Amino acid sequence: MIRLFNTLFRRELLDASRDKRSVMAGLYYALGTPLLMCFLFSVLLKQLSSKDELLITIDNADAAPALVQYLANKDIRHGEGPEVKAIRLQVNDDFQQQMQQGRPAVVTIDTDRSDDRLQSAVRRLERTLGQYSNEVANLRLLARGIDPNLLQAVDIQIQDQATPDSRGGMFLGVATLSIILTLFYAAMNLAIDTSAGERERNSLTLLLSQPLSSFQLVLAKIAAISCFSMLALVLILLVSKFAYGMVPWQQLGFSISLNPDFMLFAFVVGLPLALMSASLQVLVSFMAKSFKEAQTYVTMVLLVPLMLSMVTTYNIADQYVQWLPIAAQQQAMIAFLKGTTIAWPQLMAASAITLLIFALCSYVSSRMLKSEKVVFSL
After folding, report:
1. Is the separation of the CB atoms in 354 and 271 below 8 Å?
2. Domains in the chain: how many in total?
3. Which band of pLDDT confidence, cut at 50, 70 and 90, is reported for residue 143?
4. What number of other Cβ atoms are within 10 A of residue 126's Cβ?
5. pLDDT for residue 358
6. What per-residue confidence (pLDDT) applies to 378?
7. Mean pLDDT score of the chain, rounded to an integer?
8. Are 227 and 304 within one domain?
9. Which of 102, 91, 95 is nearest to 59 (CA)?
10. Is residue 157 part of a domain?
11. 88 beta partners
């Protein structure tokens, strides 16, 4: 039985390797995703850490020279031309009079808050105006002989125990998301071709006419597909190790480094996911009537791991999802990268559920191959 399975496995592995387009489609994702993420992360980090000058329109600036000078010291200036943001700061005519009388002086920020391109600039302007207001308020209290510290009832001090590796936050979530999705994208084309594709080429009926069980045939197909998925996983880990090393993480005070220990951990954690991914996509492909229909169904199936990974990345209902496959594995990868404690009960439970889904999908697929409607697409 083992010899027959080995023969089937080598045959499926050889057939899959001959379909270079299907193989390279999954490997292209493993190669291109880290490089694309590296570029996007670099651009985003540059924007987050940028201290560029902010040019806005300031109306009636002569009524508040001290405020205008304070803004200029913070690199917020009045400007003209195409580089000026669509933000208008309007100073009331009685600004100086209200300041002298110790009353609140009114300034108005006129902008479109729905414009995503202005969000960071508006927040920067609001934050700077708030700082100016606090400084003026403190000076007013000092002028009246009142200690400004009296307004601070609680002195909040934060002892940050985070390490540079644990500050990645969302960046770690996106990085592990791309790693997990590789196991599914690398198996997609091969799963469709080895099931719905072989059925259309009439090679599936030839295999089933041989003295072998349908369960052995399905397991051989899943094992071959999983090998290519794990190959893509190793590839994306290697490329990510060098690609993420070129991103200037230190600009935000953290780092993301994929060391060999993490790569080995991701390989072990990803093996059950590779088996589940291959078995699930093979099952869906056998359920379809044609090759094109299988492509549609499998693409829809890929939304499930994507949603679970997104829920984990953005911490949405993680209390309930952390026991599920994909989400638990991703949480474990993030914890490993951060250097925090790994939730082993959740990881072990999710891995067991993952293997159970693999076994269930494999059994259902083998049962389906005993039906003439499935084999001949009736």
Report:
1. no
2. 2
3. confident
4. 11
5. 96
6. 62
7. 85
8. yes
9. 91
10. no
11. 57, 110
Query: In terms of pTM, does the model score above 0.85?
Result: no
* Secondary structure of the chain in HEC code, one letter for each residue: CHHHHHHHHHHHHHHHHHCHHHHHHHHHHHHHHHHHHHHHHHHHHHHHCCCCCEEEEEECHHHCHHHHHHHHHCCEEECCCCCCCCCEEEECCCHHHHHHCCCCCCEEEECCCCCHHHHHHHHHHHHHHHHHHHHHHHHHHHHCCCCHHHHCCCCCCCCCCCCCCCCCCHHHHHHHHHHHHHHHHHHHHHHHHHHHHHHHCCHHHHHHCCCCCHHHHHHHHHHHHHHHHHHHHHHHHHHHHHHHHHCCHHHHCCCCCCCHHHHHHHHHHHHHHHHHHHHHHHHHHHHCCCHHHHHHHHHHHCHHHHHHHHHHHCCCCHHHHCCCCCHHHHHHHHHHHHCCCCCHHHHHHHHHHHHHHHHHHHHHHHHHCCCHHHHCCC
- Give the domain-ending residue among 150, 185, 213: 150
pLDDT reading at 277 higher than 60 = yes
| Claim to verify: residue 194 and residue 99 sit in the same structural domain | no
> Does a structural domain hold residue 39?
yes
Burial of 167 (0-12, 13-18, 19+ CB in 10 A): middle
> 76-78 and 54-59: which strand pairing?
parallel
Domain of 289?
2-45+165-375
| Amino acid, res. 182 | T
pLDDT confidence of 71, banded at 50, 70, 90? very high
In this structure, is residue 159 part of a structural domain? no
Three-point CA angle 35, 39, 40, nearest 5°: 115
pLDDT score for 168: 59
Please give the pLDDT value at position 234.
Answer: 94
356 with 277, same domain: the answer is: yes
Does some domain include residue 155?
A: no
**Residue 210 sits in the same domain as residue 107:** no
C-alpha span between 285 and 14 (Å, rounded): 20
Tokens of 354: 């993952």
In this structure, are strands 107-110 and 76-78 parallel, antiparallel, or unpaired?
unpaired
Q: 248-269, pLDDT tens digit by residue?
A: 777 666 667 788 999 999 999 9
* 277 and 295 assigned to the same domain: yes
Tell me, yes or no, whether 136 and 194 share the same domain.
no
CB atoms within 10 A of CB 35: 14
